[in-house]
Amino acid sequence: MAVSKKVHSFISQSSWIRKMFEEGIRLKKEFGAENVFDFSLGNPNVAPPGRFRETLMQIAGEDRPGIHGYMSNAGFQETRDAVAATVTKEHGVAVRGEHIVMTCGAAGALNVLFKVLLDPGDEVLVPTPCFMEYQFYVDNAGGVITFAKTKPDFSLDLDALERAITEKTKVVLVNFPNNPTGRVYDEASIRGLAALLEEKGRAFGKEIYLASDEPYRDIVYDGVRVPSILNVYKNSIIANSYSKTLSLPGERIGYMAVNPAISGLEEVMGGLIMYNRVLGFVNAPALMQRVVARMQDVKVNAAEYKRKRDLLCDGLSAAGYELSKPAGAFYLFLRSPIEDDIEFVKALQKRRILVVPGSGFGGPGHIRIAYCVDDATIINAMPGFKETLDTL
To answer: What whole-number distance in Å separates Cα of residue 281 and Cα of residue 255?
Structure first.
């Protein structure tokens, strides 16, 4: 075996999202892209705000000494200050630039965070369904991932979380608006979780950290408000990115925001800044740091995703599917009409409709439909969705 046993095992468990994406490439070559309805990948298709290109061109044209040189591992101070001002405004907690670390996207932020907080064998507890690549991030740091199911409507089940917390639990990781469900946890649930972690921390005589992965924070609908973990729990850290906020997933630009009241603030910040470098990320891309520093008041047009959500959900409802519209992100986690969600995915695939089985997110019996696609993809897929349901 050329690779380690662990890597060999992980490859076999690799993301269903990527598997379906690769299948989409094959089918598009065979049948033509317009005849394949690919809902597999959460790749934003709403264009970045117009000001992005203007700002990018302006910054690219600047000629200053050392503009392409090394920087502080934590990022440019002007960028950290700009991000801190936004976090302060949105979360209601006074955050300074010194509490921000610019990262290579939210994934980079989480890898750094786990490396700093976890000792070998420490547990990271995640509500499911969830983005299953978290398990690899945790393993990268020598930790162990554990799961607690959410309620049938995908809201937090505090009783299930309480049963899952052990003496080895070091971090609880939440993601909202959620991938794959689109669920936004309400403030009462977040406050309840904070109270639970405080209680368990006292009982075990240790700090339990609350981390939140929030790349979809700005994509919410129908007046839904996204609560803040910083506002309710002192040992909290946010990982965020501009992949969805500005439709820039390929630019790998994000940040960590650390609660100023966190225990051992100086040591935590020192660890995050150090490992942002030694894990190989070194620092967030310089050009994108300069761009986002000047675009803190700009967001992608979330109304476009709401329109696509409604187009998809109304079409599926008319075809006979039962569903609830998601409150955020750009995913519909649809209950499968048969118990085996993988068989349902295969049945849709026969009609060149590509979705991801819920089993790949710890939510069997469902499929994830990413509706960040052209309207034509949604409209033209509807006959295939109906035919599949009628057949099953």
So the answer is: 12
Per residue in 313-350, pLDDT (tens digit) is 999 999 999 999 999 999 999 999 999 999 999 999 99
CA 339 to chain centroid? 27
Who contacts 5 (Cβ-Cβ below 8 Å, separation ≥6)? none
Contact 74, 103 (CB under 8 A): no
Angle at 91 between CA 130 and CA 158, to 5 degrees: 40
pTM beyond 0.85: yes
DSSP string of 83-102? Answer: HHHHHHHHHSS---GGGEEE
Q: At what angle do helices 286-293 and 50-60 cross, to 10 degrees?
A: 130
The full set of domains in the chain, from first to last, is: 5-48+300-391 (3.90.1150.10), 64-293 (3.40.640.10)
Tokens of 391: 């057949």
Nearest of 302, 300, 294, 348 to residue 321 by alpha carbon: 348
3-state helix, strand, coil in the chain (%, to 5): 45, 15, 40
Rounded Cα distance, 37 and 387, in Å: 14
Element (H, E) at 243: none
